[in-house]
Amino acid sequence: MNIEIANRLQKLRKENGYSQEELADKLGISRQAVSKWERAESSPDTDNLIILARLYNMSLDELLYDTESDEEIRERTKDVEETKKDSIDTSKEGIVITDDEGQQVKIENGHVKFVNKDGTPVKRTKAQIALTIIDAVIFAITLTAYFVWSFCFNAWHISWVLWPLMPAVMSIFEAVFKKQMTKFVYPLLIVAVYCFIGMQFGLWHPFWFLFITIPPFYIIADMLDKYVFKTKPIEAKDDDEDDD
């Protein structure tokens, strides 16, 4: 796919108020597939092009080639732009918070519900559910280890290093699931290890050198993301990542 069509697909998606994840759900594909279309790394097949044309209420020619004038584009996207505002509505039934993408958080009778702009419940992927479970397990293990270590060995002065270590470990699983090494919060791991070595063995020097490894780690991780896992480097992330 050439870059002009890729840019057009991205523009049409945004004009119609869809995030990459929402559009992927409509098409029954992964968000990564939509992202690759918009980076001109792959092309949608004929079936997906037909669905996109129907979704955007246009012909295939209009989908692939920008034949509209600026005035027509403004008119077609007027309603979308007017609705893309954050809002909070309160009533006797509860509170409804709507973001600029149309997704809602409904608080009713003590229950919290996440709803898409079309009224359907927000579906969480298996990976998101797995990460939530893993994070809960890691938190439970950390809390247990903290009290056991502190009470049994009177190590209150040092056991706190488990808390910066906890999010570092959580981020390892996130990096693996998302195949994005820059998601690993490496500095927190270094802080936890350095404080433990310093307080336990008094080796503040020369282990300060551990902090020097942080920049090389992110340089290597960024290269792995870009060339091995084919994800965008951290400095090149566009607003699509914020949409999801």
Describe the structure.
The protein has 244 residues and is of the alpha+beta class. It folds into three domains: 3-82, lambda repressor-like DNA-binding domains (434 Repressor (Amino-terminal Domain)); 85-115, no CATH class; 126-243. It has 13 helices and four strands. A hairpin with a 2-residue loop joins strand 3 (104-108) and strand 4 (111-115). The protein starts with a helix and ends with a helix.
Computed structural class: alpha+beta
| Number of structurally distinct domains | 3
Helical percent range?
Answer: 55-70%
Low-confidence stretches: 232-244
Number of helices: 13
The major sheet is characterized as: 4 strands, antiparallel
Mean pLDDT: 80
Secondary structure: number of strands: 4
* Overall 3D form: flat
Beta-strand percentage range: 5-15%
Rg value = 24 Å
Biggest sheet strand line-up: 1-2-3-4
Q: What is the H-and-E element order?
A: HHHHHHEEEEHHHHHHH
First CA to last CA: what distance?
24 Å
Please describe the topology of this protein.
Layout: H1 3-15, H2 20-27, H3 31-38, H4 46-55, H5 60-64, H6 70-83, E1 87-90, E2 94-98, E3 104-108, E4 111-115, H7 126-153, H8 156-159, H9 162-178, H10 186-201, H11 204-207, H12 214-227, H13 239-243
Helix pairs in contact: 2-3, 7-9, 9-10
